[in-house]
């Protein structure tokens, strides 16, 4: 059997895909606030790395207005294509790319609108559009799932949450062992590490990319509560305790780092928003981190700069994007680079 190659995300992606915000009715915040944040984080990702390497970016635009806004913001630095889709959460509606032998494969799972919450026309088709553009062979995974539910270390270990994948609104009747077997078959991973639940008020039902990320194999980052009124206090403490008991596919005890979380972040109606610094995305030699204007962001960025000493770690505003339910990792998916990442990045 040909070995599946799925490097850690910190390997500079071959290409990144996203969908430009196009439907005002899908956004609690006005597009006049969402678009500048989208432009800023993509412009940061498009900056060349220290040795001149650049990230290739493809942006889909569902309407003429969205296309004009994307072109004004990005010019010729990104490929901008007119294409219908529902919302912008490309990590979840798009495929998970991997390499097997000499071929690029796009693993696609059944998308049911995050457990039936948000069913938008085009969201079940855009993943195939992305796979075709990348020239990938489509592999259909036998689960209802989203890309944001999976975090890979590049060496055979995958992190996910029970709250999401074992939720009856996605995979009713399947046991943990059955779901785990299907994950291993789809991705070729050797070990699945399960976190019980994700953030309070996360409508994805606990996506892993908001709560734990691999810095490199064997090293993870989670968040610590910030402020006495942090609604995530119990969840963050539970996540850290679980991580500290885990070993990866190579038998290593996970090295766990905790950065301060954003604390209590509310929308205009006073409802809790699932703000997370961990929803970062990698560019060419960079890590672009969502920030929300909270008091902890400078401390969080300082810790991340120590963990990524050879990369440019930059915060980019994401408060308006967050009103839609996520941040930068949620709105992107990527074709992995070629190199396997086993050394500090």
Can you offer a commentary on this structure?
The chain is α/β, with parallel strands linked by helices and 345 residues long. It has one domain (4-335): 5-stranded Propeller (L-arginine/glycine Amidinotransferase, Chain A), CATH 3.75.10. The chain has ten helices and 17 strands. The chain has helices at 31-45, 64-74, 90-93, 113-116, 126-134, 162-165, 176-187, 233-243, 297-307, 319-322; strands spanning 4-5, 15-19, 56-61, 79-82, 96-100, 103-110, 137-144, 151-152, 157-161, 191-195, 213-216, 219-224, 255-260, 281-282, 286-291, 312-317, 332-335. A four-stranded mixed beta sheet has the order 1-5-6-7, sandwiched between helices. The longest helix has 15 residues, at 31-45. The radius of gyration is 18 Å and the shape is globular. The two termini are 30 Å apart. Residues 340-345 have low confidence and may be disordered.
Distance between the termini: 30 Å
Shape: globular
* Rg (C-alpha, Å): 18 Å
Number of strands: 17
Structural class: alpha/beta
Largest sheet: 4 strands, mixed
Tell me, rounded to a whole number, the average pLDDT. 95
Q: Please write the CATH class name.
A: Alpha Beta
Helix tally equals 10
